[in-house]
What does this fold into?
Amino acid sequence: MIPFRKENAAVWTILGLLVAGALAGAVSKDPDESTKESAEVRYARSLLRLAQIDLKQLEEEDQRVSRVVPDMEVDRARMRVKVAGARLDRALAPPGEKKPGAQVRYAEERARLAEADLEDAKKVRQKRPDAISNIEMEKLTVTAEMARLRVALWREADDLPSQLDQMRRQIDLLGDEVVETNKKIK
It folds into this structure.
C-alpha cells in the first residue's frame, strides 16, 4: 500500500483518475436527479476542480518561496488538469460522439514529459558530457519511446469494444506510477 503523504499526492490523484475511468461505464444517473447532470459528469467536474486546486496550491507555494516547488511537479499537476479536462469532455460528449478518453490524454502528457526529460538530459550532457551516463541516456530514450508507444496503444484501445483491454493498459500505467513513486521515496 502506498502511504498517503504529500510526496504521493500525485500518485493518489492519478489512481483516482484511472479508477474513475475504469468505473465510468458502471456509473448511472441518480434517479432523484434525472433532470440534472449525470453522476459521471458531476464526478468528472469534481476531479477537474480538485486537479485545478492542487495546481493552484503548488503555484501559490512557488510564488511565496521562489523555486521551492520543482518544475517537474508543477508540470505533472498541469498534466493532471489536462487529463481531468479530457475526462470531463468525454463525459459531456453526446453518446455517439467520439472523444479521446482521459487515458489517451494521460498517455499523451506522459509522453510529452518523457520527451522533455530526454531533451533536458541532452542539453545537460552537451554542457557537461560526464553529467549523465550512457546507460541513463539510453534509459531516458527507451522511456520516451515507450511513452510514445503507450499513446498508440491507448488510441487503439479506445477503438476496441473491450473494456478489458483498457483495464489492462490502466494496470500497466499504475505499475509504472508505483515504480516511479518507490524511486522517489528511496
Observations:
- Residues 39-64 form the longest helix (26 residues).
- The radius of gyration is 18 Å.
- Residues 23-34 have pLDDT under 50 and may be disordered.
- Residues 104 and 154 are 5 Å apart (CA to CA).
